[in-house]
Amino acid sequence: MVTNFEDFEPIFGEAKPEWETASSNPECVPLNPFLFRVFAVDPSHLRFHATDFGSYTWEATRSLHQLEDMRDSIGIGGSWLDFMNYVTSCLRSKDVKLILEWQSKSNGNLALSP
Question: What PANTHER family is this protein classified in (predicted)?
Fold first, then answer.
C-alpha cells in the first residue's frame, strides 16, 4: 500500500457537469463546463477543486484513509497502487463527469453538492 502522496503529480482537466436527476435542477439552471485540478496538499491528503469560473466552485480534501474507504465501498480489487493508477487514469481521461445535485437552503442561497 502507498503510504503517502509525496510523488503525486497534479492533474488538471475539464469535467462535464450533469444534474443527478431532472428534479435536481428545478430552476433549469444551465451549466458551463468545469475545470478541475487534483493535487497533494501534504503527504497524506489529496485536494480536489472544480469550478466553472462563474457561479459554482467546489472543493474537497480526502485523506489516505478516506480514499481506502472509497476503494472498499466501490469494490475495486487489486493493490492500492492499482487503485490509484485507475483513479489517475480516469481523471486524465476526456470523459470526466461532475454529477451535481441542487440543494435549496432555508436562507434562499443555493448550494451545489457533487
Answer: U2 SMALL NUCLEAR RIBONUCLEOPROTEIN AUXILIARY FACTOR-LIKE PROTEIN
Cell 445535485 found at: 101
Other CB atoms within 10 Å distance of the CB of residue 112:
20
Handedness of CA 86, 87, 91, 95 (dihedral sign): positive
Q: Residues, the chain, total?
A: 114
User: What are 37-83's pLDDT values in tens digits?
Assistant: 999 999 999 999 999 998 889 899 999 999 999 888 888 888 888 88
Those residues with Cβ within 8 angstroms of residue 82's Cβ, 6 or more apart along the chain or in another chain? 76
The count of C-alpha atoms lying within 13 angstroms of the C-alpha of 11, restricted to the half-sphere facing its C-beta, is 22
- How far is the C-alpha of 17 from the C-alpha of 3, rounded, in Å? 32
- Give every CB contact of residue 104 below 8 A, 6+ residues apart in sequence: 110
Distance (Å, rounded) from C-alpha 107 to C-alpha 75? 39
Q: How far is CA 59 from CA 11, 48, 56, 81, in A?
A: 14, 5, 10, 24
What's the pTM value of the predicted model, to 2 decimals? 0.77
